Amino acid sequence: MNEMITFPKDFLWGAATSAYQIEGAWDEDGKGESIWDRFSHTPGKIMDGSTGDVACDHYHRWEQDLDLMQTLGLQAYRFSISWPRILPDGRGQVNQKGLDFYDRLVDGLLQRHITPFVTLYHWDLPQRLQDEGGWPQRSAAEAFVHYADVVSARLGDRVKHWITHNEPWVAAFLGYGMGVHAPGIQDFQLAVNAAHHLLLSHGWATEVIRSNSPHAQVGITLNLNDVVPASPSALDYAAAREIDGFTNRWFLDPIFGRGYPPDVVAWFQRVHGADLQCVQDGDMDIMAAPIDFLGHNYYTRTVARDAAPENAPRSIDTTDSEFTEMGWEVAPRSLFRMLIRLHYHYQIPHIYITENGAAFPDSISEDGDIRDTRRLAYLQAHLQAAHDAIQCGVPLRGYFVWSLMDNFEWSFGYTKRFGIVYVDFDTQERRLKQSGRWYRQVIAENGFRFRNGS
Ligand code: IFM
């Protein structure tokens, strides 16, 4: 049966990217070095040995890319600002050429009637600040506020949607705990400190942005996972609660004024010997600064199972599940569950899905087309889940597909393609995939026809 799914009339349809993943021009026009420049230039850190030096060359091709967005009918575009392009040393001397680039980008978007959603931090910390210790130091949070001030003072008259941080969990725990992201450090205590300073800087910056950009909407984007126990066993429930605490509640609770969850504080101490000595009086109030929206990046769920060998066998059988090229289970109902939870548990004013998408291997057919049917099906299933959540009263205001175009997928280099636009990294040619054409139609019709069982 074909059912037409229509979204609310002011629902915002967008696409997302980030600076390091698309811009290239890593050392041009006065830009300083970032931790990702340093990390990707270090042999052995990136799967295919590549770097973001050129990436999608968006720094030079931005006008063409804006035209592409217009062709898609995008109503909003989420991009991030490269901090070292604005402040090469992290603080102090402002690089006007860097600011000018984003100034032109914002004007170009507005001329095309595309609403800019600006993310201030999508992981490319100025290397100079890392040389002082990076996010585990309180001084990084202070420098971030200076940076937020400079950017919002320049763009705040036209940019009315601001995201302080993208996925602080990843920045802190993959960057400083597991070391698979820049700056490549493996120290759990440093990761906990980094997470704290990221949240602190979010709270401080929220106030600064509001004062520079009247009537702006300010929020933060979190990567949230629906964590489900593999079986009804008490052990699996306990495992699920731990993982949920670590990935979700550690950030949601303090942002929404509940402080750090005590069970996770105890778990950090017990399992990692990590403490919260970096927390100062008043910090928890600062990071709970009221926000206008939460950005939710959703890709997959996590099935939690206690590691004990005597534990019950898995009762969630994922052998028939589909997995993306990242090895992530395709689980659209978990997006619905997360949205419901966010709404009922945290009473968030507005929610945006600031990223959702999938990496699948793309092949170019003989006729030149890229028929990425699996990506299309992934997007459709997740939009269906998002629509169901709206029907249940969730204040979901918009959706940003990740990503506008194939790009540098961090430690995976160029081996994973998430775009609805194909990028030939040799020629920089862009080509709309089938999923891109489908998304264009979704935007035009503010919905789509959903085939039950498809
Ligand atoms: O490419 C990343 C993005 O930078 C942050 N969220 C997840 C995406 C896919 O891994």
Return the CATH topology: TIM Barrel
Major beta sheet, specifics?
8 strands, parallel, barrel
CATH architecture type: Alpha-Beta Barrel
Give the helix level as a range of percent.
40-55%
**Low-confidence runs of at least 5 consecutive residues:** none
- CATH hierarchy class name: Alpha Beta
Structure description:
The protein has 15 helices and 14 strands. It is α/β, with parallel strands linked by helices. The protein has a single domain, classed as Alpha-Beta Barrel (TIM Barrel), CATH 3.20.20. Strand 12 and strand 13 form a beta hairpin. The chain is globular and about 55 Å long. The structure holds 5-hydroxymethyl-3,4-dihydroxypiperidine (IFM). The site of 5-hydroxymethyl-3,4-dihydroxypiperidine (IFM) has 8 residues, from loops.
Give a nutshell description of this structure.
The protein is of the alpha/beta class and 454 residues long.
Describe the protein's topology:
Blueprint: E1 2-6, E2 12-16, H1 19-22, H2 35-40, H3 58-72, E3 76-80, H4 83-86, H5 96-111, E4 115-121, H6 127-131, H7 138-155, E5 161-166, H8 168-177, H9 188-212, E6 217-223, E7 226-229, H10 234-255, H11 262-272, H12 283-287, E8 293-297, E9 301-304, H13 332-346, E10 350-355, H14 373-391, E11 396-402, E12 421-423, E13 430-432, H15 434-445, E14 447-451
Parallel strand pairs: 2-3, 2-11, 3-4, 4-5, 5-6, 6-8, 7-9, 8-10, 10-11
Antiparallel strand pairs: 1-14, 12-13
Helix pairs in contact: 3-5, 7-9, 8-9, 13-14, 14-15
